[in-house]
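Researcher: We're reviewing a set of sequences before deciding which ones to prioritize for further study. For each one, I'd like a predicted 3D structure that I can look through quickly. This is Transporter. If possible, include the structure in token form so it fits the rest of the review sheet.
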Amino acid sequence: MLMNLLVGIPVMLICLIFQAIFVALCLRAYITHRKKIIDLERPFVNNIVLLSLIMILMLVGNFVQMAIWAQVFIWLGEFSDFTTALYHSGVNFATLGYGDIVMSEQWRLLGPLEASNGILMFGVSTSVMTAAVMDIIKQSLGRANFPL
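Model: Here's the predicted structure for Transporter, in token form for your review sheet.
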């Protein structure tokens, strides 16, 4: 169990750093694009594009974290190919828990560690999207003609 924690906790911290980077990228992209589209004639379409950009960036951030965990599984000798390791990582990260692929008893505790990491990171991704939606609603309510 101690080895699982000694491996899993640093990976979780690395994922946290990557999540912070992607949140910062999203914030920068949102502010940059929001300033550009705020006075355009098609706010509805522009808001869809802006929200899609934020969602894609956060999904890429989560995918990068799954790939990091997959690479760790390969380094530990649990999987021989990246595709299987990534599949297993995605199942853990998204907390699906299929159980069709199980790691060795020695490293099995990394699955729940990745799942706890994943659910936290999906929560952060959701909060970024919620903040963007709330800002768009606020901006829309501030307009005289009220188009979303």
